[in-house]
């Protein structure tokens, strides 16, 4: 299972999400799932539908339980986590998941995406 986790600002559109995903996917295996913070789930539905992939909302306590290599000031302030994208990907991929690479930022800086590999099916 390869999960693409997303963090994004309010107002980030489909092009921002696609931009971050495209950067994260470079040289990586195909993704099988999408994930983000539970309260941001609705904004990711259009991308999940366009890609035909399942979508997981990650609860706040699951986000903060994940240690991330990236330390974003915005994520730390808003969510008490280093990177929402990295934490979402790893939490959704399950116990023992690992990041394939640190988060990538969309060209417009509205969204981030990180890929994690896990064993959940």
TrEMBL record:
Molecular function via GO: hydrolase activity
SUPFAM superfamilies reported for this sequence: CobE/GbiG C-terminal domain-like
Keyword Transcription carried by entry: no
CobE/GbiG C-terminal domain span: 2-116
Key words, A-Z: Hydrolase
Gene Ontology terms describing biological process: cobalamin biosynthetic process
A Pfam family: CbiG_C
Protein known as: Cobalt-precorrin 5A hydrolase
């Amino acid at each position: 299972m390869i999960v693409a986790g997303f963090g994004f600002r309010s107002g980030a559109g489909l092009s921002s999400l696609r931009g971050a995903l495209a950067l994260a996917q470079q040289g990586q295996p195909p993704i099988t799932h999408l994930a983000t913070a539970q309260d941001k789930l609705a904004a990711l539905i259009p991308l999940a539908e366009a890609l035909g992939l399942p979508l997981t909302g990650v609860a706040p306590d699951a986000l903060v339980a994940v240690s991330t290599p990236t330390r974003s000031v915005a994520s730390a302030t808003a969510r008490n986590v280093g990177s929402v994208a990295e934490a979402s990907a790893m939490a959704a991929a399950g116990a023992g998941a690992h990041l394939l690479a640190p988060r990538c930022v969309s060209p417009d800086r509205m969204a981030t995406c990180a890929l994690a590999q896990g064993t959940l099916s």
